[in-house]
Model the fold of this input.
Amino acid sequence: MKLSIIFLILVTPMLLTAQEPNFEMKKIFNGKNLEGWLEPENNIWWTVEDGMLWVKSGPEKRESILWTEEAYKDFVFQTEFKMGEGTVDSGIFLRDENVQIQIGISGSLKRDLTGSPYIPGKGYPVEADNSVLDKSGWNTMRIEARANHFKVWLNEQQVLDFTAEKAVLQGPIGLQLHGGNTMSIAFRNVKLLAL
Done:
């Protein structure tokens, strides 16, 4: 009896350690250029400067989405972002344009819904508590996507736990410049962990 207890005491920590996944995230923006991303044709919106990815509205205020070259299934995506000038309406597209996590002012609701999911045709089914958002400084957003279940953290605080009715299960990740506004936003330390 004593031997089995001693065995469990010695072996259990080793088993737990062996089962822990490697949570080291991989940079998917190198801070130098748009390598790994599908640069839009006639790109006038997306630039890289001082290790940051900047997007700024063009004179016609057209929409632009910067997609990763690679497609992902389940993943953890993380980025730092800083809102720039104008009315910032941006977001992170998850695998396609049917699930987006908002950054900034909702064009339809005219208020800040950072961290909330936007579903075309359904609007914002739930709203994140984004009270920890720093509107003038850098913020960190982390998104966990497992099938159609999504969790969002803003500045290390979980602000959303949401299951979409439907979701594409594999696809690229997109950064959005919403059309119709004069705006800019910067991203840096863009990372991903495939699950």
The two ends are 40 Å apart (CA to CA). Residues 25-194 form a domain with the Jelly Rolls fold (CATH 2.60.120.560). The first strand starts at residue 26 and ends at 27. The helical segments are 2-19.
